[in-house]
Amino acid sequence: MAFSLSSFIIVSFVLLTATPYSSASLSPHYYDHTCPRAQEIVKSVVTKAVAKEARMAASLLRLLFHDCFAQGCDASLLLDNKTGSIVSEKGSNPNRNSARGFEVIDAIKSALEEECPQTVSCADIVAVAARDSVVLTGGPNWEVPLGRRDSKTASISASNNGIPAPNNTFQTILNKWQQVGLGLVDLVSLSGSHTIGFVRCTSFRQRLYNQSGNGQPDASLDNAYANQLRTNCPKSGGDNNLFPLDYVTPRRFDNYYFKNILVSKGILNSDEVLFTKSKASADLVKKYAESNEVFFEQFAKSMIKMGNISPLTGSKGEVRKNCRRVN
Ligand code: HEM
Ligand SMILES: *[C@@H]1O[C@H](CO)[C@@H](O)[C@H](O)[C@H]1NC(C)=O
Ligand SMILES: *[C@@H]1O[C@H](CO)[C@@H](O)[C@H](O)[C@H]1NC(C)=O
Ligand SMILES: *[C@@H]1O[C@H](CO)[C@@H](O)[C@H](O)[C@H]1NC(C)=O
User: Fold this and answer.
1) Which PROSITE patterns does the entry mention (predicted)?
2) Nearest to 197 by CA among 264, 243, 163
C-alpha cells in the first residue's frame, strides 16, 4: 500500500514536471548519479574559452541551433568526414567557413571522459554549453533537460535544407521552423540570439548592393547604417570580413537585437523580415524590444523546446567517446 502510493506520487510528479517543455525522456537530473559533476565541468571549460575569446559564447550557442535543425539534437553536426560513411555537416552551406567552436566541445569531452568515461553524450554537451554561453554573456538561465544520445550518422542535405538561409523569405524561414515542430514565438525569440556574435560580409552583401536583382540596396535597411557597412563590405572581395550582429552591445546578451530591428538596423535580411513581413511577428519584435524580461523568459522556454527536437534516447544511437567520430 505504502509502496503503491509512493509510486503513484513519483509517477505523477514525473508526469507533471515533464510537461509541457521537456520531452518525456529527457531530464535535468539525468547525470545526477552517473556523473554528478558533469555540468560543473562543462561550465568551467566554457568559462575559460569565453574568457579567452568573447565571441566563443556566440559560436557555441549557434552550434545547438545548427545541430538540432539537421536530424534533431544528436550531435550529428560534430562528426568529421569519414570516407565511405560520413559526409560532414561541417561542409554544408550554413556551416562552411562559419560554424566554429568544435575545439571547445572537444576540450569539454576530454574532461568529461576523464571524469566519467563514455557517460555524457556530445549532444548533451552542446545543449549545456549553449546555455552556459547565454548565462556568461548576461542572458537568462534555465535547467537543461538531458539524456540525449549521439547519432551514428550525419546528413549534409538535412543541414543544407533544414537550416534557414539569411536571404530566405519570411515564409520559407517560418516553414523550416514548423517542420521541426517550432512556431513563430520560438522563431522570433530565438532569433534574439543575434544579440551576440558576428556575421561575414558575404551573408548580407546582397542587401547592400542588389537586393532584388535591380541593382538597388534593400530599402528596409537604414541608409546611414548601410553606408557604414559598405565601407568594410565591398561589392566584391572581403567576403570574410566580420561585423557584429548587434552593433550596439555586441558582447552582451540583451534585447538590443530587437531594438535595432525596429529602426531598420537588423543586419541580416532574415532579421529585418521578422518586422516587415508579418504583423504577428512584428508584434513579437516590439514586445521583446520593450522588455528584456519578457524576451528572456520566452527565450529560455524556446531554447528548451529547440533542444528537445527529435533526441535519440533509450538504446538509440550511442554515447560517443570522441565527438568527431562514431565509436
Ligand atoms: C531564423 C533563422 C536564422 C538565420 C537565417 C540565421 C543566420 C545566421 C547567419 C547568416 C549568421 C552569420 C554566419 C556567418 O556569416 O558566418 C548567423 C550567426 C549567428 N547565429 Fe543565426 N540565424 C538564424 C537563427 C539563429 C538561432 C535560432 C540561433 C540560436 C539559437 C542563432 C545563433 C547565431 C549566433 C549566436 C550567431 C553568431 C555566431 C558567431 O559569432 O560565431 N541564429 N546566423
Ligand atoms: C568532406 O569531404 C567532401 C568530399 O567528399 C568535401 O567536399 C568536404 O569539403 C569535406 N568536408 C569537410 C568539412 O572537410
Ligand atoms: C541567396 O543567396 C545565395 C547565396 O549567396 C544565392 O545563390 C541566391 O541566389 C540568393 N537567393 C535569392 C532569392 O536572392
Ligand atoms: C543584380 O542582380 C541581377 C540578378 O542576379 C543581375 O542580373 C544584375 O546584373 C545585378 N546588378 C548589379 C548592378 O550588380
Assistant:
1) PEROXIDASE_1 (PS00435), PEROXIDASE_2 (PS00436), PEROXIDASE_4 (PS50873)
2) 243
